[in-house]
Design a protein that fits this description.
24% helix, globular, 9-stranded mixed β-sheet, alpha+beta
Length: 216
């Protein structure tokens, strides 16, 4: 599977064309930009709990063209996982040697985790790398998800698949900065509660990065 970014054409919805143009302009204006947990925590090491080279990963920010506007596809992770159990996350994971870069990795992981047909996801662009304190260098891949789409959660990884309106996530009034003490230090992070879903940490940080990239 080899994926490439869509060119602007009439087959893309108006919001998708606008988003792609904004992503392209942001990439041209600031190609070396990076983001991550360290942005809100400048006094803490880039990889606060990881001493090895960063691990490359990719996530898919899939936007489905819902009746009342685009919505972002998210997952609730299962409760038995060794890390981030029960948390809200984007479909995604490590970039394997067999993957042809982060776009292919994000599409593969979305297919494995939620059954998303790669042929229904049209990549629009990428965000700058997001570095996590646990040692990951995550490439968020943005894609327009075509209809008809259905989700089949992999019970080994995903408890539920749900969607959140894109406009809600792109409203900075919904980006709440919170903090907790971790290993004796206060750590700051974003949270974006929506209905009964608690979106926070890396997922919320990536959403904030998307907002900063295309709308700020």
């Amino acid at each position: 599977m080899t994926a490439s970014f869509e060119t602007i054409d009439n087959s893309l919805s108006g919001w998708a064309q606008d988003l792609k143009q904004r992503l392209d302009l942001a990439t041209q204006a600031e190609p070396e930009r990076d983001t991550g947990d360290h942005i809100l925590n400048p006094g803490i090491d880039l990889f606060a709990s990881w001493e090895k080279p960063p691990r490359d990963a990719a996530v898919l920010i899939g936007l489905r063209n819902a009746a009342d506007g685009p919505s972002v596809v998210l997952t609730q992770r299962t409760g038995h996982l060794n890390s981030h159990a029960g948390q809200v996350a984007f479909p995604g994971g490590k970039i394997d040697p067999e993957d042809n870069g982060p776009v292919d990795a994000a599409l593969r992981e979305a297919h494995e985790e939620i059954g998303l047909d790669p042929g229904l996801a049209r990549p629009l662009g990428k965000l700058a790398p997001y570095f996590t304190g646990s040692g990951y260098r995550i490439i968020p891949v943005i894609a327009a998800v075509d209809e008809p789409v259905s989700y089949v959660p992999n019970p080994n990884e995903v408890e539920d698949v749900f969607e959140v309106p894109f406009l809600f996530l792109m409203d900075p009034a919904n980006h709440q900065k919170q903090s907790r003490v971790w290993n004796g230090q206060r750590r700051y992070f974003y949270e974006m509660p929506f209905a009964d879903r608690y979106i926070w940490g890396v997922t919320a940080g990536i959403i904030r990065s998307l907002y900063d990239t295309v709308y700020r």
